[in-house]
Amino acid sequence: MTTIVASEQALSAGRPEDLLEPYRRELTGYCYRMLGSAFDADDAVQETMVRAWRALDKFDGRSTLRSWLYRIATNVCYDHQAARQRRAMPMDMSPSASPPVLSSLGAPLEQSAWVEPIPDGRVMPDTSDPAELAVARESVRLAFVAALQHLPARQRAVLILREVLRWKADEVAELLDTTVASVNSALQRARATMAASSLQATQAPDPMDEGHAALLARYVEAFERYDIESLVALLHEDATQCMPPFALWLSGPADIGQWHLGPGYACRGSRLIPVSANGTTGLAQYKPSGTTPGRYEPWAIHLLEMSGGRITSITNFLGTHLFALFGLPDHLDDGEGVVQS
Fold first, then answer.
1. Which domain holds residue 137?
2. Residue 159: which H helix or E strand, with range?
3. In a domain, 340, yes or no
């Protein structure tokens, strides 16, 4: 409510340049869930700002400023979705790999094929309410965002607005220029599709506590020492690992361990620093430079999910393009990282 009042006061005071800024974070979260990419979400929010600026003289106050902006953002997301393919995760494309496939990653797909991570600071609400934070974390979880991509655009918008943002059915109907009955029908169909999605079959991760913080520390130490026996001992028996932009993914500690001792061995000697992304635990991996001793260069963003005292999934987003998004340094030097050998 404070944000709404502040923005409407800015508008009435003749400061239209302040109109959208208080809404940037929540609009980014909405567009990210709709589009599955932080970069696409940033583009969509920027386009929303431009459209709102140009149409400012048409805002007549019959709806709240917030709902007016969401209407624009929804239309922008519809346009983006119509022009691009559905983003996915490797588990959504093929069965898990097994020997001898484990000897190679295969050819990378375009970055636009994948659901990508987003820093928590761009989407998590500014609140201390545990229930609101729990909903926000679960609704930016990679598996949830990937499952959303299975929905038609309108169903996706309805589900996010009703079940994540807690809008009333009549508010959503007004935003989408439809009826309450149509909104309820779309929500029912969206729920059915989400329930049937294999991506939603995985158990939601537990929130971070002292036990899981210790588990994370053991993972970091094992990875930095490249002690794969210790690393796989931390994994759940059904743990998965995937590595976008490659379609290959792994299931179970044995195959994950074999991968690390095979092609993954090139990661030996890496350093990790913590990041917060998609409501879960993240780590930025820097590999030893091939040319400069004592220098470590960006390689991947790891997202981990943990449940019942074990790591249940590891997603390694390979590529340097995400490091600037997370505000990470362009290299590390000796002595920098989470745990040193």
1. 2-118+126-200
2. helix 153-159
3. no
In which region does residue 14 sit, left (phi positive, over 0), alpha (psi from -120 to 50) or beta (all else)? left
Distance CA 96, CA 90 (A): 9
- Rounded CA gap, 331 and 28, in Å? 28
Q: Which residues make Cβ contacts (< 8 Å) with residue 252, sequence separation at least 6?
A: 237, 238, 239
Q: What share of the chain is helix, strand, coil (3-state, %, to 5)?
A: 50, 15, 35
* 218 and 148 assigned to the same domain: no
Looking at the structure, tell me whether residues 137 and 226 fall in a common domain: no
Q: For residue 341, tell me if it sits in a domain.
A: no
Same domain flag for 147 and 270: no
In a domain, 205, yes or no: no
Residues with pLDDT less than 50, the chain: 1-7, 10-11, 13-14, 199-201, 339-341
Nearest to 141 by CA among 162, 164, 158: 164
The SS3 call for residue 127 is coil
Instruction: State the total domains in the chain.
Output: 2
Q: What is the pLDDT of residues 178-237, one digit of tens each?
A: 999 999 999 999 999 998 875 444 555 666 678 889 999 999 999 999 999 999 999 999
Distances (CA, A) of 220 to 25, 67, 230, 269, 273: 30, 43, 11, 12, 9
Q: Which of 200, 234, 255 is the last residue of a domain?
A: 200
Residues 169 and 281 reside in one and the same domain? no
Distance between CA atoms of residues 125 and 251, nearest Å: 33
184 with 215, same domain: the answer is no
For 217, the enclosing helix (H) or strand (E) is helix 210-225
Bridge partners, residue 286, by sequence = 271, 298
Model confidence over 31-67: pLDDT tens digits? 999 999 999 999 999 999 989 988 887 777 677 889 9
For residues 236 and 188, state if they share a domain. no
